[in-house]
Amino acid sequence: MKTRVISATVLIIIVVACFAIGPLTRALFLFAASVMAVWETCRAIGCKDIKCVPWVLYAYSAVTAAAIWFKADGIICEALFFLAVFAVMTVGIVSKSVRAPGALASIAVLVYPLVPFMIIYKLSLTDNSVWIPVFAIACISTWVCDSFALFGGKRFGKHKLAPEVSPNKTVEGTVCGAVSSVLAGIIMHFVLRASFDIPLVICILTALICSSFGQVGDLAASLIKRMAGMKDYSNLIPGHGGVMDRVDSLLFSIPSAYFCLMIAGIF
To answer: Which of 18, 104, 163, 248 is placed for a possible disulfide with 25 were both Cys, Cβ 3.0 to 4.6 Å?
Structure first.
């Protein structure tokens, strides 16, 4: 427990510092996290004797991050994604160790976790402060949801939600987490209203939606770990596992919060 608390404290300080200093530190932090996430996911898939093509994934992450940093047109990012898929399938054709399983697995890693990471990366580099309320609502509602879901599951849990993926998650815990998201939305409305004019109902709905997406994100990461027979993606963060163990929910909740606020016309 002591190691877990110390690691969490250090991690929070690093994240806050990187996001507070400026766009460059945010970009470097998120790029490094995306590379580690790719390594961890490929490592998990490798436990099933499937060989991915990580160098294509790393190259895609680096070039796409650079394109976003230099504000390239959207068609450029689309072309880079197309070229990454083309490169992966080409390697699958010519490499006996990769073949179809490795090529398809690499495309899967390209889609998840890389695409959500690139969405978050792009959002964090917006010229205005749009990313602040998006990150705040997504992170707070996800953490509140996770905490209440854990408590609700232990206190009221009787019906398993997805026993083959995450045996400890229950329907009752999920409902408690969803209800708590309403509270998170109310809190974030009052916290953010001095700087951002986001109606109360929009805050509540966004918090509810992104926390629900976050719970699916948690299960998605667990699905891969369960396939690989792993407890954690890596030991990068002592007491917490790897990058994917920490960002699994946020990979879905942050983009969904952004899309919700955009659809609502807030930005």
So the answer is: 18
